Amino acid sequence: MDGKKGVIWLDRKQKTVEKYGHSSYYIYLENEENGTYQEDEKDESLVICGGGFPLIIRGELRGSILVSGLVHDEDHQVIVDCLRKLKDEGTCK
Q: Among 2, 68, 11, 7, which residue's Cα sits nearest to residue 43?
């Protein structure tokens, strides 16, 4: 996508997930609804859009899944679809 630079964009999604402990799409929706995170739009280390998803194990953020290259809500949906498939196959509990 124009203006989106691979690893840098993924790093920004990861930092957003790490800061808030939610998916970056959740943060985007919260911002759209009530403007809670508008200040972070000025922070160039974060990005308020979909495509970052936390991996929370036993209540602790242990990592994240990151997707970039589609429209941001589609990036998020790719992650959701993959996790749902893993869960349905019984490989992710």
A: 11
Q: ∠68-18-37 over CA atoms, to 5°?
A: 85
55-to-3, 26, 62 alpha-carbon distances in Å: 27, 14, 6
The alpha carbon of 77 is separated from its chain's Cα centroid by a whole number of angstroms, namely 10
Task: Look at residue 54 and give its three-state secondary structure.
Answer: strand
Query: pTM higher than 0.85, yes or no?
Result: no
Each residue's pLDDT tens digit, 40-75: 556 778 888 999 999 999 999 999 999 998 999 999
- Reading phi first (left if > 0) and then psi (alpha if -120 to 50, else beta), residue 34 is in alpha
Task: Confirm whether 51 is domain-assigned.
Answer: yes
Structural domains counted in the chain:
1
H or E element, residue 73: helix 72-89
